[in-house]
User: Fold this.
Amino acid sequence: MDAHRSGCPINLSLEVFGDKWSLLVLRDIMFGNRRHYGELLANSDEHIASNILANRLARLVELGMLSRAADPSHKQKVIYSLTEPSIQLVPVFAQLGAWGRRHLPASPELVIRAELLENGGPELWDAFMDELRELHLGIPRTDGSGSVLGALTEAYLGELERSGAA
Assistant:
């Protein structure tokens, strides 16, 4: 790995996530369950360019934030999965979403997941991280709880329908 500007943990984190796209790619994998390049490209709310997406995916794999494996259902596709360090970003995403919801002109259909995560607090974040571990790492959940991802997606789709943006 290249030399770092400093050993400050904030600096080191920004060296991983400080570009315009990396956190958004992780967000789309985490909250949208988009696991293939084509899904990420076609469903990007921010319209990421194909070359930028390819670059960020490769970089996130290199940094150990994502893993990449052949898709057994299609010879030419790969599946991207979150790694444990990425899964542990759930509280960070929850706090970023809460801050953005309070201080920026966010759209209602995109606010709902942030609001649910903020209101659910650490207990919900832990349940979501356990679900992501099951989905991405193959580690079964022991508590048999319901799907946090399903509830977040359902709330988002409900807001889309209410707003007429669907």
About this structure: The helical segments are 9-17, 22-32, 37-42, 50-62, 84-87, 90-103, 108-137, 148-163. Strands lie at 66-70, 78-82. The chain has a mean pLDDT of 93.
